[in-house]
Amino acid sequence: MTSAFDKIVIVTKETQMDQLVRAFATKSQAKFYLAQAAQAAAPVNAQSTQKKAGSAKNIQAHQVKSEFDEISLADSAYKEALKNLQSAIPAGINVQHIDWSYLPTFLFGEKDLVIALRQDGLVINIAKYLSEQPIVAVNPDPARYDGVLLPFTVGDFNHHFRRIVSGEFGVSAITIAKASLNDGQTIHGVNDIFIGPRTHTSFRCNVSFMGREEYQSSSGIIVSTGCGSTGWFRSIVEGARRISSGFDNAKPAKEQSRFPWDANHLFFSVREPFESKTSKTDITFGKITTGDPLVVTSLMGRNGIIFSDGTESDFIEFNSGKIATITLSDRKAKLIKK
Length: 338
Known about the structure:
Layout: E1 7-12, H1 16-24, H2 27-41, H3 50-87, E2 95-99, E3 112-117, H4 120-127, E4 134-139, E5 152-153, H5 154-165, E6 171-181, E7 186-189, E8 192-197, E9 203-209, E10 212-218, E11 221-224, H6 232-244, H7 253-257, E12 266-270, E13 285-288, E14 294-298, E15 304-308, E16 315-317, E17 323-336
Parallel strand pairs: 1-2, 1-3, 3-4, 4-5, 4-17
Antiparallel strand pairs: 6-7, 6-17, 8-11, 8-15, 9-10, 9-14, 11-12, 12-13, 14-17, 15-16
């Protein structure tokens, strides 16, 4: 069959069972570990009768069995979904399968079709490493995953495969945030970008926005995209709304915080700003556009970082001497529509 793409890249992420087996070598060892952990966590009452103790042990054993069984069932469902997905791709089409941990160093081709098979978070993590390559986001287990960003099931993919591979599809554009440092480093965020301390300490910086500037001490700054507006940004708006309104339940935060995935703006929010003789709290929230970027100058001797989309391991240091300009990326992620 004729393909509009040179290669299909399937990106997956290890399951909880994979993590347990990697840590304990075998499934049986992993099950034993869960049993031991549950037993250690259970409270011990010296006054309990032998009958009660025996009953408690039975309950613990049942709970461990249920937990392990659920992990095992989820693992089997995911592996079966991957198998079915791979079988839907005809022989002769170049396919590469990678784990998500290789994303920071993987080189995508300009004419790659990328398939994300996992939860919404995997789509987010893939998107920031792409340029113009479209993403087919497949929900491997609709019974377990809500899949806001996952329009396809494995069955849907099988049905629409030829159309997609031939290039006949529409896309939902997703705005990407970008933080650019004065030393040339950049980091992108599809949901959000965090600028702040590595640990639970005060983040000290100078903030410049729309002609105003001030020194701040806070627990960090969150920059949110439309795609991420139902997550961290929503919790920020909800907290601020309830505090400022005296816990008024007038209108849900989800109705006030959400904005389109392809919106040509971002929002920034300063977390827990602290006002003192030297630090101010006037620039704590605002809309970032192409013409109105946010500029943050770090005053951290150490432990200042910037990371995106909840992946703290993929960060850039942001200490004294570093200046970050936050604005919209010149590219948008392309999520293929069903």
